[in-house]
Design brief:
The chain has helices at residues 15-23, 29-34, 75-91, 97-111, 113-116, 127-141, 170-178, and strands at residues 3-5, 9-10, 13-14, 38-43, 53-57, 64-69. The protein is an alpha/beta fold and 191 residues long. Helix 1 runs parallel beside helix 3, helix 3 crosses helix 6 (127-141) and helix 4 packs parallel to helix 6.
Length: 191
């Protein structure tokens, strides 16, 4: 179990439960079982409204993550920041393809179809567009109101919802639900 320091809740979201569930995701549970991360969360009380942010430190021993909840941030933004930093602890530094696949898989495993429908394809998505798409799914799962503009990156992502999952084969549904699959690539032209 991860060691957590910080407030017990934020806007009605139990932070101890959020951290426990996030660290126990099947995607990386075995990775964190040997060395559970140390996670600290603080809440910004001054400045202008902004997104939540985090920092990962990997120096001998378990990963150390510190997250600052942005002034005016909603519950989805906080959950996204937690998954973002845990994805770095699992997949490494940088916002490369493996990290994006990890973040997508974690979002799907934790918040289900609401996230899966908003990220049909990773290719061509900037990590900020991916984050906005995942946050949109988390907002649906947590019944959050629409976010204020400062919680969205600019420009808005061009992401469409994937087909209704019930229209897909059961094997693909399971793969998407566990974060192990992305939709098949379209055939290349001219080859």
């Amino acid at each position: 179990m991860a060691r957590y320091t910080g407030p017990a809740s934020y806007l009605g979201l139990d932070l101890h439960d959020l951290i426990r569930r996030a660290v126990a995701l099947p995607l990386w549970a075995s990775h964190f079982a040997a060395a559970p991360p140390v996670i600290g969360i603080t809440v910004a009380t001054k400045g202008r409204p902004c997104r939540s942010t985090g920092r990962l430190t990997l120096v001998r021993g378990p990963a150390s993550i510190h997250i600052v909840i942005g002034l005016g941030a909603d519950r989805a933004d906080l959950a996204l920041a937690v998954l973002h930093e845990l994805s770095h602890a699992y997949a490494g530094a940088g916002h490369h393809r493996r990290w994006r696949q990890t973040l997508r898989g974690a979002g799907i495993q934790m918040f289900g179809v609401a996230v899966a429908r908003r990220i049909p394809e990773l290719r061509g998505l900037d990590f900020r567009e991916l984050e906005d798409s995942i946050a949109a799914g988390i907002r649906v799962a947590l019944c959050c109101p629409p976010p204020p503009d400062f919680l969205l990156w600019k420009p808005q992502p061009v992401v469409t919802e994937s087909p209704v999952p019930t229209a897909l084969c059961q094997r693909w549904q399971r793969a998407v639900a566990t974060g192990e699959a992305t939709p098949p690539r379209p055939p290349r032209r001219g080859r």
